Amino acid sequence: MKIMVCGKGGSGKSTVTALMAKEYERQGKRVLVIDCDESNYGLHQQLGMEFPKDFTDYVGGKQKIMMLSANGPMNMPPLFDRRISFEDIPAEYLSKEGSIMLMSPGKIHDANEGCACSFNIVMFQFLPMLDLGENDVVILDMEAGIEHFGRGTGMSCDKVIMVVDPSYESLKLSAKISEICSHIGKTVYYVINKADEDNTGIMIKKIDKPEMIACIMPQKGDLKKAGLTGEPLDGQYEEVQELIAKIA
Ligand SMILES: Nc1ncnc2c1ncn2[C@@H]1O[C@H](COP(=O)(O)OP(=O)(O)OP(=O)(O)O)[C@@H](O)[C@H]1O
Ligand SMILES: [Mg+2]
């Protein structure tokens, strides 16, 4: 299964990604986490892992991809000429810890280095070529918002998880993502995040398909603290187990 985790900036995408990866590992799965957010640097820490090298370098680097895609990403030659399994991903582009692997298409490292188009192009081509074993799961931690839908970065994902935090902006985005996903035939599951007594009812009412709410994740003190200190997320949460069961 290939899962895309999306939502508004700061809604909890990386937190949900890291918690799901750890839970899948506990359930005996091999997990490939792909950090598709070129602008944030926190996911590896939430997973308690080293920061991986940019995978885009493996296929020639940013400048080469930009040249190859000069006539549009749909008109460029394929970057991968054969099917790929987890074993084929070069170890130097992965961080590994237990049964979890972390890959990063690329990050913005310096001023004036150019945009993130190439990273999205690499994932657009890589993901459909990636074959999974029965026990394999891929989780994509997407950049905030909907630009990645425009680029088609996660088009070959089977499941879309929309993390919704208690804000009007987040609810508006969830409605837009639901609309986009209905056009491309993808099912959206919602995680209501940072829920408390006051906001949960309002959020449930505003979700267009409440039956697709996979879990309601309360505002948790330990997650909030880890968000400040940068400690890895090692806790086990029944809400995350519920989420995984719901999207199975
Ligand atoms: N259920 C929760 N309870 C308490 N704090 C949470 C919860 N979920 C996320 N947070 C905190 O909210 C902040 C944002 O979370 P996170 O980084 O996962 O969001 P994000 O959507 O990945 O953000 P970005 O768009 O910047 O990548 C972090 O400080 C995190 O610790
Ligand atoms: Mg994030």
How would you characterize the overall build of this protein?
The chain has helices at residues 13-26, 43-46, 62-68, 117-129, 147-151, 168-183, 200-206, 221-229, 238-247, and strands spanning 2-7, 30-36, 95-97, 100-103, 136-142, 159-164, 188-195, 213-218. It has one domain (2-247): P-loop containing nucleotide triphosphate hydrolases (Rossmann fold). It is of the alpha/beta class and 248 residues long. Strands 3-4-2-5-1-6-7-8 form an 8-stranded mixed β-sheet, with helices on both faces. β6 (159-164), α6 and β7 (188-195) form a beta-alpha-beta unit. 39% of the residues are buried. Adenosine-5'-triphosphate binds next to α1, β7 and α8.
Q: What's the arrangement of secondary structure elements?
A:
Layout: E1 2-7, H1 13-26, E2 30-36, H2 43-46, H3 62-68, E3 95-97, E4 100-103, H4 117-129, E5 136-142, H5 147-151, E6 159-164, H6 168-183, E7 188-195, H7 200-206, E8 213-218, H8 221-229, H9 238-247
Parallel strand pairs: 1-5, 1-6, 2-4, 2-5, 6-7, 7-8
Antiparallel strand pairs: 3-4
Helix pairs in contact: 1-9, 3-4
β-strand percent reads 15-25%
The number of E-state strands comes to 8
**CATH fold-level assignment:** Rossmann fold
Order of H and E elements? EHEHHEEHEHEHEHEHH
Total domain units: 1
What small molecules accompany the polymer chains? adenosine-5'-triphosphate, magnesium ion
Tally the helices: what do you get? Answer: 9
Which CATH class applies here?
Alpha Beta
Q: Please estimate the helix content.
A: 25-40%
Silhouette: globular
Mean pLDDT: 96
Distance between the termini: 9 Å
Regions with little confidence, pLDDT below 50 for 5+ residues: none
In the sheet with the most strands, the strands line up as 3-4-2-5-1-6-7-8
Named CATH architecture: 3-Layer(aba) Sandwich
Instruction: Tell me the CATH superfamily.
Output: P-loop containing nucleotide triphosphate hydrolases
What structural class results from the helix and strand content?
alpha/beta
Rounded radius of gyration (Å): 17 Å
| Biggest sheet layout | 8 strands, mixed
